[in-house]
Amino acid sequence: MSANKPQPTALNARTQSRLLEISFDDGRQFSLPFELLRVYSPSAEVKGHGPGQEVLQTGKRDVGLVGIEPVGNYAVKPIFSDEHSSGIFTWEYLYWLGDNQEVLWGDYLAKLQQAGHPGDTGRDAPMLAKSGGACGHHH
Predict the structure, then answer these.
(1) What was the pLDDT predicted at 124?
(2) Can you name the CATH fold of 8-130?
(3) Ranges in the chain, pLDDT < 50
(4) What pLDDT does 102 receive?
(5) Which of 45, 39, 47, 91 is nearest to 68 (CA)?
(6) DSSP result, 18-48
(7) Is pTM beyond 0.90 here?
């Protein structure tokens, strides 16, 4: 096994703010919204069985976490309030989600937009917030 994969040192589910806080031994810390975890669940139900077969998850803005079960010492299995519990999140995958969170949100929001569900997430596009594009584009 390669020893250089970051291992988590702390994992906390904040049910009020709906964030999974995870700290790694390389010093990185991430706050992953439950919604992000839910829509990027590595389960077959979400991922489909091959590229391009992903199932767009909509209406997960208020999804909660009912529990988290450890899977060996390499992963966790979150149990979501919508009864989805088949996703096994390895430390590596959680780290990747944390590292790419903004891109993933942007991607998800774009897909919701295309599918006609733009208001379906609890998040605003982080990209828009940054570019200072608040020129009264509020519909």
Answers:
(1) 61
(2) NE0471 N-terminal domain-like (3.30.2020)
(3) 1, 125-139
(4) 94
(5) 91
(6) TEEEEEETTS-EEEEEHHHHHHT--SHHHHT
(7) no
